[in-house]
Amino acid sequence: MARSKSSKAWLHRHVTDPYVQRAQAEGYRARSAYKLLQLNERDRFLKLGMRVVDLGAAPGGWSQVAAKTVGPRGQVVALDLLEMAPVSGVRVIQGDFAETAVLQDLLQALGGESVDLVLSDMAPNLSGIALSDQARSVALAELALDFAREHLKPGGALLVKMFQGAGFQEFVVALRQIFAKVSARKPDASRSRSSEVYLLGTGKR
Questions:
Q1: So which residues are the catalytic ones?
Q2: CATH number at residue 103
Q3: Distance between CA atoms of 54 and 183, rounded to whole angstroms?
Q4: Per residue in 125-164, pLDDT tens?
Q5: In a domain, 16, yes or no
Q6: Residue 36 within a domain
Q7: pTM for the model
Q8: Whole-angstrom distance, CA of residue 75 vs CA of residue 52
Q9: Which of 59, 109, 114, 194 could form a disulfide with 29 if both were Cys (CB 3.0 to 4.6 A apart)?
């Protein structure tokens, strides 16, 4: 089957993307690894020895960065609905984060301990219906926030992907009720045409 013009254009942008090329050269599974590296270079929320939960982890680029940064004294537990190949130093759980049984598997992997940092790069499968896609994106961010509220240590941090649109400002307000500082970041590795923004809440109350 012949490729459409749009799919050919996407493929060309992908293979010529400098972050895709860099990820392939440096052994990262996805260009998204550089988003986390750039965000952490600015705000230093990911540190040696931390206990970290990575939500929406597949294919594993963020987990790779997190595991390298926290080192053998730290812990990284990654969760995604999609299958994810093993990452050295990372416990991988496959399942729907919205399901109670999957959440229990995650808590068991953490040994009942609170965490220092929650990372969420979760995003819905896009339907092309803007209002629906935005609502589903907000719902995923709210799941990450609920988990952070219950399982982050005092002083802990949450980094969560959001898309600008309906519900964005309300979510920022909800973050400010839980964290001492909330910042909006768009790393250089985030494609300029994307409406994604990373919200960082630090200093959990």
A1: 161
A2: 3.40.50.150
A3: 19
A4: 878 888 888 999 999 999 999 999 999 999 999 999 999 9
A5: no
A6: yes
A7: 0.91
A8: 6
A9: 59
